[in-house]
Write a structure and sequence with these properties.
This protein has helices at 26-35, 59-72, 86-90, 94-104, 109-117, 126-136, 138-146, 172-176, 181-184; strands at residues 5-7, 13-19, 44-47, 76-78, 150-152, 156-159, 191-194, 211-213, 218-220, 233-241, 244-252, 257-260, 282-288, 292-297, 303-307, 311-314, 317-320, 336-341, 347-351, 357-361, 365-367. The chain contains 9 helices and 21 strands. Helix content is 21%, strand content 27%. The chain has 2 domains: 2-252, Metallo-dependent phosphatases (Purple Acid Phosphatase, chain A, domain 2, 4-Layer Sandwich); 257-367, no CATH class. The relative contact order is 0.13. With 368 residues, the chain is α+β, with helices and mostly antiparallel strands.
Amino acid sequence: MDSAFRRLQLPQRARLLMVSDIHGSLSLLRALLKKCEYDPERDFLFLLGDFIEKGKESSADCLRAILQMERELPHVYLTQGNCDNIRWMLDLPDGDFRSLIEDRQRNSILKSWMDEDGLSFAASSIPAVKAALLQRHKSEIDHLLSLPLLIETDELLLSHSGAAADVRASTRHDCVKNDDFFFRSLGYDRWFVFGHMPAQNFHDSCTGNPLLDRRRRLAAIDGGNAIKRFGQLNALIVHKDGGELIFETRFADPSPKARALRDVIGLPESGTCCADFFCRQVERVLSVNAHFTLCRMKNSGRNSYVKNEWLERRDGGLTVRCACSQEFPALRKGQEVYLLEDKLSGYDLIKTEDGRVGWVEKGALGPV
């Protein structure tokens, strides 16, 4: 893997920003960099793959902006992500290729390029469309495949999805599509920063904030942007002072803002767990009230309160539609929050500026 391995020597003092899984969300990336007070002359910016696909904005516009940053700014470094392999898409059988385009529509970079280039399946055969896309965008396609799989400094390892236990023995799959990395890795001799799988999958709560496992020195930074129902785009900021690393986090969320109309007392923690990506099937219902159902979850054996509207019957059993927060946070009058969901009975779902997700009684929030 040496040809895809990049070694960087950082200065003794530096400010480092790491972002992964942008998924075409250029406006969110710009909002996040502004929130981080990103200074391109001072800061080192690492974008850890999955620049395109799946988001609501143009992947073509996002990729152009990212590649321009890499070319023109002094300290911008990219790694490959699994969604950035456009050549793989073009190599799909014709029927699968067309299905991918039609399924993702404008969220696919290939569909964006087709629209920009005036290509359509109605006017051209699928092989002709593939050939035209490859000819017109070969430089971008080849550049993405030439990006390093992993970046190493004295203090850090960075990739899209992880690496093998012996980093130098890592394959492409280890670095860009390593779904089980967080659960299988024993850790490294320095911090390993990665994305690919949303950090919410690893938290006990419903937060999408980066998860820092200090024992194993693993930093999972994917906020679930464009993937999770209430995803966000995260930045891990590392202040390097000699051999000391100080971490802080920021996030950008596309949800609208709301303001607390009064003080909200909130409720203490219930001791229940958030029904998450790996734990959606209900073993049995323990109790029901007007707005929430207390469930025993099948995989974990733990109890979880689930919003009634988010329970659905599937394959003869009950399933939780999406991760359900167990928190009822306190708010100060005038405090601004992100309004995630306001169409459910009794409560609105919010996210605070520190990334906590929780429920607030209806009537407690107003417009900003």
